[in-house]
Amino acid sequence: MVADALASDRRTATGWGRRMIASIWAWLTDPANWSGADGIPTRLAQHLGYSAIVLLAAAAIAIPLGLYVGHTGRARWLISAANAARAVPTLGLLFALALWLGPKLRGDLAFSLPSIIVLVLLAIPPLLAGAYAGVEAVDPAARDAAIGMGMRPAQVLFEVELPGALPLLLSGIRAATLQVIATATIAAYVGLGGLGRYLIDGLATGDYPATAGGALLVCVLALVLDLILAGLTRIVVSPGLTGKYRGATGVDEANRIAAVSER
Amino acid sequence: MSWVRDHLGLILELTLRHTVLAGIPLLLGLVLSIPLGWLARRYRVLAPVALAGTGLLYTIPSLALFILMPLILGTRILDPINVIAAMTIYTVALLVRTVVDGLASVPAEVDAAARAMGLTGLRRLVTVQLPLAVPVIAAGLRVAAVSNVSIVSVASIIGVSQLGSLLVDGYNRNNPGALWAGIIASLILALLFDLVIQGGAWLLTPWRRTAAPRPAGVGA
């Protein structure tokens, strides 16, 4: 009986799917959805704006810290602690902070500030790990040569270790960016603006075309940003590291480490 | 605390659901990743395609993937299958690379010795390469497990119940007790998954227990 019910469910569901794709397309191409305060350009700009603020703030904290830990070898526990903190469910962190901080704030800030703080906290571990592992992965011979040439510690850091750290640092930035874009979508549940509004409001009102249309936009945004950052990695990483020059070791590790963050 | 005492049954039931929604994709993902990783390693031209493809899958935000699953699978939005399928996609995205790395970690001389002893194809994979790749694969599996346990919570937003439901209810009804219960229960569950995988890896690699202690590792 259950099988029968499932089978009939599937059959109607397929027709449902086809109709839905048409309505999602209609939603995406409706000019009314492309203007005004709830229009796609506005929501996209909000999403990008919040994400940019969050990433800049997190980078300002995490990258110097990661470079410091990698350069001096001190306070490695910071890296382990940040990694362990990733086990805290994102959703729980978001709701806990919104519940605790929301009532203490006024106006729009009550909705946006708790989300922004959580997003910064989430972006820190991949950035920290990327910066630290990047410096750690620098060929010790290159570092020794720099010291042997009489470079000061700051010169070693900025002229040798930082360029050498770029592949892993950038993959940390990629992971953090994806996580922020994804979590900013969820943060619409606690009132943040951005593309997540379509998903959350659509679910609340049972408007599947708007929900799925918004979900598609979020996917496209994540993909485009990831491709841009991948392209940037190709441009800024020294050819001495990417194996374009004979004898250099491949840098495939770049994606290895920091690609692990949450969606 | 009193909220937890009054709702132990509910918490246990949600924990069980959470375990299924995070655990089954972990197993499915592992089973799918081994052949994919093996293919990517065996036929080097496939490697960039397989890794870039799975990497792209991993860029899809979880809430968006949960919402779009019914369109792909023809399921209903509340069907837990959506969550299992989406989580399997994420697990595969993480583990294919891990399997490739794990197989690459097999010492070439061991592989050559196995070949010289007449082990071919599947037999060499199952009896020599995979066992030696266990530490690397287990490390990847631990990352995937912790990430799965956390991401599954997001499914409560589309209405699929598990520990994330405690988070959503706690937030909606201003009930910090439920919220904290949900957070702590998922932390404990993530820890349990981690311990089970570490225990499994320990059981599967008896030779590592008798070997001389390796120099202390750095970092996490």
Structure explained in plain terms:
The complex is a heterodimer of chains A (263) and B (220). Chain A has 263 residues and is mainly α. Chain A folds into two domains: 1-34; 37-258, MetI-like fold. In chain A, 76% of the residues lie in helices and 0% in strands. Chain A is built from eleven helices and no strands. Mean pLDDT of chain A is 84; it is low at 1-8 and 246-260. Chain B has one domain (2-205): MetI-like (MetI-like fold, Orthogonal Bundle), CATH 1.10.3720.10. Helix content of chain B is 79%, strand content 0%. Chain B is built from ten helices and no strands. In chain B, α8 runs antiparallel to α9. The radius of gyration of chain B is 20 Å and the shape is globular. Classes of the chains: A mainly alpha (263), B mainly alpha (220). The interface between A and B is large, with 60 and 54 residues.
Largest interface: A-B, 60 and 54 residues
Q: Biggest sheet of chain B, in brief?
A: none
Proportion of residues in extended strands of chain A = under 5%
Beta strand count of chain B: 0
> Percent of residues of chain A in helical segments?
over 70%
Query: For the record, what is the CATH homologous superfamily label of chain B?
Result: MetI-like
Summed up, the domain count of chain B is 1
What is the CATH fold-level name of chain B?
Answer: MetI-like fold
Order of helices and strands of chain A: HHHHHHHHHHH
Structural class of chain A: mainly alpha
What's the order of the H and E elements of chain B?
A: HHHHHHHHHH
Number of helices of chain A: 11
Largest sheet of chain A: none
The count of DSSP E runs of length 2 or more, i.e. the number of strands of chain A, is: 0
CATH superfamily of the largest domain in chain A: MetI-like
* Overall mean confidence score, pLDDT of chain A: 84
CATH architectural group of the largest domain in chain A: Orthogonal Bundle
User: What integer value in Å does the Rg of chain B equal?
Assistant: 20 Å
Q: Assign the CATH topology of the largest domain in chain A.
A: MetI-like fold
**Discrete helix count of chain B:** 10
What multimeric state do the chains show? heterodimer
